[in-house]
Write the structure tokens for this entry.
Amino acid sequence: MTLRELIADRIRTGGPISFAEFMDISLYHPELGYYARAAQKTGRAGDFFTSVDVGPIFGELLAKQFAEMWQILHLGSDPRTGTGVRPHFDLVEAGAGSGRLARDILDAARKHHPDFYAAIRLSLVEQSHTAREAQGATLGPHAGLLVHSGAALPATVHGVIYANELLDALPTHVVAMTESGLREVFVDVESSTRFVERFETLSTPRIAEYLARAGAEMRPGWRAEVNLRAEDWTKDSAEALQHGFMVLIDYGHNERELYDASHSAGTLTSYKQHSQLADFLQEPGETDITAHVDLSAITRVAERSGLDVLARLDQTYFLLGLGITDLDGLSLRQRLALKTLLLPGGLGSTHKVLIFAKGVGTPALKGCSYRVRMT
């Protein structure tokens, strides 16, 4: 049975499903979902680019930031005596895929920060069984550091939880303002297996509560995404983090911009071979589906969950603070990668970095030393 047939059968049996459920099945079905099938989803051979695809520079700079975070925790409560020192540092990547970013980070840590490298306990959190099976081979000489590989976060974390372009791929509800009021977009099937949209009453009161907190004033014809799963993930991650940091890198906007006229059509997008698709209902499991992250909502949940907000800034400023322009001996290819990570309009300005902490106060981090600004 194809994924299209599976979804169509589910709708015929139980009625239209929310777009959030459709996206969940399309991306994360264990055998037929987008992330369970082809091993390579990004880069020239995939459907979209991430910062990892431009080379190891991104991982090298993250290693520098994580080494500083380890040092902060390593000093413990009293730098003179080392009271509170932990022998290990949990390095936890959520949405880790096959482990390519972790490999880049560990390569740099072993070369430039050997004491930090020796303390690492690596956890890779990934929904796709296929990707998890590839992690050992991807990590190569670092495979011995892997203490946890699974679909869920470790129960407790003393170190750092980080995620690069995870929240934008979490299944999101979609709403539309009609002349009759706010409705949620559901997916139905007509004719043989053609999927179509239906406007229904909201599947949960959390959607209206979410939009009210955001101060969203949608006009008839406007659409928007409400990512309750991203809120839940942030809350769960904050609870797992006992002592340390959380670094989230993704593209998105603050709520004032996300729900204004400039995004009145919503931000939901589907990619296939680096091209946007106009109708992404018809190829479930074959295309990436993504929506911009509500950075205000994530920050609000983090604060409610006991995290301190250290920074919210463009990726460009984060990488500049870590010394990306000071790297020596770069090849032409590496210099082109550097430009991709930094130049306005590229990954540097579209991607934002949110840094939270628990139990460490509000230390001044290298990644925040250039400018703490979000454009």
Q: What stands out?
A: The first strand starts at residue 17 and ends at 18.
